[in-house]
Amino acid sequence: MDLAHCRNDFPILSRTAHGHPLVYLDSAATSQKPTTVLDTESDFYRRSNANVHRGAYELSEEATALYEGSRARVARFLHSDDPDEVVFVRGTTEALNLVAHGLGRGLLRKGDRVLTTVMEHHSNIVPWHLLRTEVGIDLEFVDIDEHGRLRMDDLEAKLAKPTKVVALTHVSNVLGTVNPVRAIADKAHAAGALVVLDAAQSVPHRRVDVRELGVDFAAFSGHKALGPTGIGVLWGRKERLEALPPYMGGGEMIREVHTDRVTYRDPPGRFEAGTPNVAGAVALGTALDYLENVGWETLATHERALAERAVQGCRERFGDQVRFLGPPLGPDREAVLSFSVTGIHPHDVASILDAEGIAVRSGHHCAQPLMERLGVPALSRASPYLYNTLEEMDRFVDALGKAIAVFAQ
User: Fold this and answer.
1) Which of 130, 300, 366, 390 is flagged as catalytic?
2) What's the pTM?
3) Annotated catalytic, 366?
4) Which of 138, 151, 233, 280 is the most buried (most CB within 10 A)?
């Protein structure tokens, strides 16, 4: 990777924060955007802006071609051979709500079991809780071991009882754990359950092949993968999408509307009511191009080097005073570094780092069940990405040293 050239592609990295060069280490929350993505979105509004699917004039046809071209691009990115399996939504949250809502109105009945995990983001917990209240489903959680990996024995024990849905994350946004999705999907399908995958933290960092993973639905957000905010994807096997009722009603998602009846379009149109985020979808295609041009192996090697630099630096300087949670760094661990500092609240850590120009996240990271399981109220989190440098990880360690020194006084 030509890192210097890569950094030049991200205009925001040239700014300062509190008088220091910005070190952005919160990419698990949202990534920064390269100029090509910014230009694509801007160019759409400047040159091609029109509503899609609705106009018999050149501008509308051009916008429609760009929008549907991006749908095909996403399908290729996910290694799906059918663009109609790609639904554009606002993000992972809407995608998972769409699936849960549809299953709750179709497949699931009172007493049916949905199995998820304690490491899930709230986006893959709350929609199922809503069904627990509205439909009366049973919701159970697979536990983790002391290293932050899913307990496969617990999964198998819970799958021994009738289960309709298994909903899990591909990569934990707190622990960085990469779950063995294919093995889990095979076990779930053998038990007669559908598999819903939250791929928000995997799509930006690794090759995601929905066919190889063996899931029924997968969701991700564009803004975590160099794309704009407000655009995301629900991928679903065609037969699974066809079995879901509409999520929202309105324009574009219908075949016919009469005073006494309504009929709906086939997927994906059935789930895209109203005017979509066309510019965001088009720019998402550019973001995926950028990621694939970097190369997955190159990206993995770079991110692992960044994580190792930070972890090793903290161990050498602070010993056990800084504790990183999750599996050891390696192929089954992404560079999501959630940590605690003995005697310092995570919010205080983040505030002192911010004063040094370093942006990290602190709090429960929308994963309160996991915080409860870990026995902590909150954690700090540094999540480097392709545009970060080893020198920035050294600055991160130095800033932690300042925080520790402040509270030692």
Assistant:
1) 366
2) 0.97
3) yes
4) 233
